[in-house]
Amino acid sequence: AEAHIGLIGLGTMGSALALNIAEKGFPIAVWNRTTEVTHRFRAEADELADRILPCDTLAALVAAIAPPRAIILMVPAGQAVDDQIAALAPFLGPDDLVIDAGNANFHDTNRRDAAGLPFRFLGMGVSGGEEGARHGPAIMGGGARADWDRVAPVLTAIAAKAEDGTPCADWMGEAGAGHFVKAVHNGIEYADMQMIAEVYGILRDGLGMPAEDIAGVFRGWNEGVLKSYLIEISGEVAAAVDPVSGGPMLDVILDSAGQKGTGRWTAVEAQHLGTPIPVIEAAVMARNASARRAERAAGEARFGPGPRRVEGMTTETLEQALIAGKILCYAQGFGMIAAASTAFGWSLDMAAIARVWRAGCIIRSAMLNDMAAALAEDPARNLILAPGFAAMLEETVPALRQVVAAGALNGLALPALSAGLAWFDTMRTARGTANMIQAQRDFFGAHGFQRVDGLDRPHGPWGKA
Ligand code: 6PG
Fold it and tell me: Where, in this chain's numbering, is substrate bound (predicted)?
């Protein structure tokens, strides 16, 4: 036994993670279902090859790792994880630790955590794509704190480092907490991407801007408040040229987005928790609608495309609208995390989560520094009420309003930005309109209501009570 740790599953993410671990000085034993893949992986590992132990069988993998063992699973979420757990069980003892690093549904992680497995188990969210896994992902761990602490030296070594040098790897909470936080990360990822796509739509269809100019706009924004990985890559994407047509790459890509489901899980879970995340829900809806190309084409044939052209909209206004949308979306995401923390008894550390997201992950951005600081100050407060963000919203919401209005008037669909604005207006309305809902419920179902004057007359005079 010479390896410090083991890894199962040498797909894109598993290979990148294994190389990262080896590079940080930890000898690693690896196994893949197809033995040939395992050996090719080592052969291609160049100067890291002497820290990689390719194993042909699970028994050999287990034997190669110093006990108590730690083995990272990087296999497709779902049944493959259960199958792998079952296959490993005969070889492992109660002190050995299996770490599921895939994009598991946190309910599955909860189930596995509670299943009385014959070894220790952690569920770990890993973000940053292939590049992140190879050179520094963000890592969100869930399970027993002591198990996390055992592998923390490896995980913090391979993780991305924030500007202040802090590793973006942390224990989030018990059981499925790590995978839950990763799911919310992905929900926010969907929303950030969708809001950028909506603004791209205004630049392209509303202002008639060519892709290379759009690239310039995104590049400019990446120097300011919006500085983030997703804005950066959007600039690169917009600038890219299709080698086939010689035109903008974006113009030859079908407008139909895929999804593996993590954003949907977040939306579904938010409904279960009764916590509003309308920007994320709108982003999931938009992906679903994007898949219905034929139906959209039929809609356009019947109703026409709408005027689309927008007059007098500056890129500064769009930038401000995106800043507002982003703050609102993150406020919702953190609100969901707070709701889950209470509902699941997890004591999630809001500021620690924002800190882990500062680097390495897909949603990394300059703004997360300030969010981490605001959440450290008061984790229970809605982010929109943190003084710095409240001031930013005061400054940027008028632009969001202008953009959403322009979209509404000109037939440009802005589901996520509109959802953000509607939520903001909901959250700044002390006396809303749910009195009407309560009256209706009481009218048809004698559900009762509370009175503003506190009197104990919980039914209306509509003769139903
Ligand atoms: C990350 C990403 C990643 C996710 C892809 C695909 O944080 O690195 O969230 O884990 O799998 O982004 O997600 P969809 O297929 O659902 O878009």
Answer: 103, 127-129, 185-186, 190, 260, 287, 441, 447
189 in contact with ligand 1, CB cutoff 6 A: yes
Calpha distance 180→240 (Å, rounded): 35
| pLDDT at res. 433 | 98
Catalytic residues: 182, 189
Q: Which of 183, 373, 188 is nearest to 281 (CA)?
A: 188
State the ipTM, two decimals: 0.96
If one looks up domain 432-465 in CATH, what number appears? Answer: 1.20.5
> Which residue's C-alpha comes closest to atom 2 of ligand 1?
127
For 5-175, the fitting CATH number among 2.60.120.380, 3.40.30.10, 3.40.50.720, 3.30.9.10 is: 3.40.50.720
Q: What sign does the CA torsion over 450, 453, 454, 459 have?
A: negative
The SS3 of residue 164 is coil
At 1, the pLDDT band (50, 70, 90 cuts) reads: low
pTM over 0.95: yes
